[in-house]
């Protein structure tokens, strides 16, 4: 997951880098250098990024039943009152 988080952050930064001035060649070394200079390691890895990535990769068999049985019911009474 750590590698995937870092690659996801790098890809997003690379797209921003490439969009400058109507489009330019992406130089990944420059993307990494600028990211580290601007934000340090948090440019590519933070606890929230890790947490969200883990949730996205959670096994579907465990995640969906938990979500439907534990999370959705929290807002159900308010939704039903408004419906």
pLDDT < 50 runs, ≥5 residues: none
Strand content: under 5%
**Based on DSSP secondary structure assignment, what is the total number of beta strands?**
0
Individual helix count: 4
Task: Please estimate the helix content.
Answer: over 70%
- Averaged pLDDT, please? 83
* Helix-strand string: HHHH
State the end-to-end CA separation: 40 Å
Radius of gyration: 19 Å
Q: Helix- and strand-based class? A: mainly alpha
Largest sheet: none
Shape: elongated
Question: Can you describe what's shown?
Answer:
This protein is mainly α and 83 residues long. It is built from four helices and no strands. Helix 1 crosses helix 2 (28-39). The longest helix is centred in the last third of the chain and has 23 residues, at 60-82.
Element layout with pairings:
Blueprint: H1 2-19, H2 28-39, H3 47-57, H4 60-82
Brief description of this entry?
It contains four helices and no strands. It is mainly α and 83 residues long.
């Amino acid at each position: 997951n750590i590698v995937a988080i870092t690659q996801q952050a790098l890809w997003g930064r690379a797209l921003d880098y490439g969009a400058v001035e109507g489009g330019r060649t992406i130089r990944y070394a420059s993307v990494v250098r600028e990211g580290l200079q601007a934000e340090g390691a948090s440019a590519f890895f933070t606890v929230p990024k890790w947490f969200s990535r883990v949730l996205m990769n959670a096994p579907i068999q465990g995640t969906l039943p938990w979500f439907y049985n534990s999370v959705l019911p929290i807002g159900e009474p308010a939704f039903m009152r408004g419906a």
